[in-house]
Amino acid sequence: DSGVTQTPKHLITATGQRVTLRCSPRSGDLSVYWYQQSLDQGLQFLIQYYNGEERAKGNILERFSAQQFPDLHSELNLSSLELGDSALYFCASSVGQGGIYEQYFGPGTRLTVT
Amino acid sequence: AQTVTQSQPEMSVQEAETVTLSCTYDTSESDYYLFWYKQPPSRQMILVIRQEAYKQQNATENRFSVNFQKAAKSFSLKISDSQLGDAAMYFCAYRSDMNRDDKIIFGKGTRLHILP
């Protein structure tokens, strides 16, 4: 158990819908990262937050957005869902910024779009 | 942009034997970290081993060791005395220590089968 929690574990929804994935980082961790794992694209970085502020963006679609709240939990919002958005979404957290700090991965949320 | 390449989509090894997973990467940076992650059927991402680019000594963690060749941009993982629990997807990964963002860049993975 990494100490990072993600809810829900599984999510099944229809095309065109909107969903919210939630992540609670390890106690004391200020950085949150979101990654997407799909058959087509593999594991890719989506977005990073540090202490409530967006710090880096990867290949995140405009239909996707995220935020980190004052209590440091984060939410990833996916809208106008398409079949290709079906994937495993990971959240990771670390104490600070920089490669010296290990990123701890949550168990992931499996999203299925039908 | 940095890239990570794993050229072996699948590998098999007999239990108790040794296996080496290959990884190459491309970067123009001098400061970075390299990792091997394990993803078992549970899908949890587990850090196996980590290598700082500034360290010449190869990292080891029990039965796991790496061969880090900085000039060749090669980073292979050796698993000794393979066990059934080692069966998983293994990802080679890169993380810059020079950029504002410290995202992890993953290879496509190598699926490792352990034969009893």
Sheet with the most strands, sense and barrel status of chain A: 7 strands, mixed
Low-confidence stretches of chain B: none
- Described by the principal axes of the CA atoms, the overall outline of chain B is globular
Number of distinct helices of chain B: 0
Approximate strand percentage of chain A: over 45%
Mean of residue pLDDT of chain A?
95
Termini Cα gap of chain B: 41 Å
Outline of chain A: globular
| Main sheet properties of chain B | 6 strands, mixed
Q: Please tally the β strands of chain B and state the result.
A: 12
What structural category arises from helix and sheet content of chain A? mainly beta
The protein's oligomeric status is: heterodimer
Beta-strand content estimate of chain B: over 45%
Q: Please give the radius of gyration of chain A in angstroms.
A: 13 Å
Structure, described:
- The complex is a heterodimer of chains A (about 110) and B (about 120).
- In chain A, strands 2, 4, 5, 6, 9, 10 and 11 form a seven-stranded mixed sheet that branches. In chain A, strands 1-3-8-7 form a four-stranded antiparallel sheet, with no helix packed on it.
- Chain A has strands at about 5, 10-15, 20-25, 30-40, 40-50, 55, 65-70, 75-80, 85-95, 105, 110-114.
- The radius of gyration of chain A is 13 Å and the shape is globular.
- Chain A has about 110 residues and is an all-beta fold.
- The model of chain A has no long low-confidence stretch (mean pLDDT about 95).
- Chain A has no helices and eleven strands.
- Chain B is mainly β.
- Chain B is built from no helices and twelve strands.
- In chain B, strands 2, 5, 6, 10, 11 and 12 form a six-stranded mixed sheet that branches. Chain B has a four-stranded antiparallel sheet with strand order 3-9-8-7, with no helix packed on it.
- In chain B, strand 5 (about 30-40) and strand 6 form a beta hairpin.
- Chain B is globular.
- The chains are: A mainly beta (about 110), B mainly beta (about 120).
- The interface of A and B includes residues 44, 48 and 108 of A.
